[in-house]
Design brief:
The structure is a single chain. This protein has about 260 residues and is of the alpha/beta class. It is about 25% helix and about 30% strand. The chain is built from 7 helices and 18 strands. It has a 7-stranded mixed beta sheet, with helices on both faces. It has a 4-stranded antiparallel beta sheet with strand order 1-2-6-5. Strands 4-3-7 form a 3-stranded antiparallel beta sheet. Helix 4 packs parallel to helix 5. The chain binds flavin-adenine dinucleotide (FAD) and FE2/S2 (inorganic) cluster (FES).
Amino acid sequence: MKTESQTVKAFTFKDRECAKAKPGQFLMLWIPGVDEIPLSILDASEDGTVSIAVRKVGEATQALNAKRVGEVVGVRGPFGNSFTLRKGRILMVGGGTGTVPLYFLIKRLAHQAEKSVLVLGAKTKDELLFMDEVKKTMEGERGQFVATTEDGSYGIRGLCTEPLKELLVREKFDVVYACGPERMIRKIFDLTEEYGIDFEASLERLMKCAVGLCGSCVIGKYRVCKDGPIFDSKQLKEVKEEFGVSKRDFDGKRTPI
Ligand SMILES: Cc1cc2nc3c(=O)[nH]c(=O)nc-3n(C[C@H](O)[C@H](O)[C@H](O)COP(=O)(O)OP(=O)(O)OC[C@H]3O[C@@H](n4cnc5c(N)ncnc54)[C@H](O)[C@@H]3O)c2cc1C
Ligand code: FES
């Protein structure tokens, strides 16, 4: 267990199935007596070790953050598809807990990519997650790390979409990967459309079954749990009306994002 920020904690446990996960996949974590929630996989290794990172937002995540070493939780997974692993010039953009699946992707890609740039954004320095590990992985002539904070307490002041625009003007990239608040992902998608670059993003929707049965996670003709959570440019174009605009709530009603 490791405290990453005032609201985010990382947990590590053994699970033989989830240890086979690929970057972008998620698991369902059951907190007995409380709820079962979807969480991205932060890291997975052959020795059966799996890591997740959780932000305290409501009842389930608060109960999870209060857990101590040795307490019991339930795990199902891994679920969903994964990012495609490209070897060319890659640009990754993460905001908030959106850093979680990107961290896993970076670990698998940074050393094999021709060039890899990571732009990480947060409200304030304390919320820039896994900074030390990420900086270490990105260091070197083929890697570049850019941080932005909305309050200017670290890196460039403002939103992570600002340096992104400059990078896209200055350099050529084969693919952009993104995860974070959906409105941010939508802005990045619009930029990649403008510059004609392949794009892959991880989306979040309400999840109950996680295996494509209940329909609570739909976006357009897709179920995020089974067809996603990673969607490419072509798929995102098909769901433009909902993507970054609205999602279904617990009653199935559309609510603004
Ligand atoms: C594929 C996927 C990956 C995710 N990865 C992470 C991660 O790595 N780290 C992290 O901190 N959070 C992650 N989340 C979000 C996390 O699931 C929610 O924060 C959590 O479910 C909130 O539960 P709660 O009881 O604490 O809060 P509540 O008060 O119940 O809900 C707060 C908000 O969380 C969202 N939420 C609640 N229940 C669900 C649910 N069953 N499915 C999806 N969203 C829900 C809703 O937007 C809700 O408004 C992920 C969500 C998805 C869909
Ligand atoms: S969570 Fe049930 S269909 Fe996706």
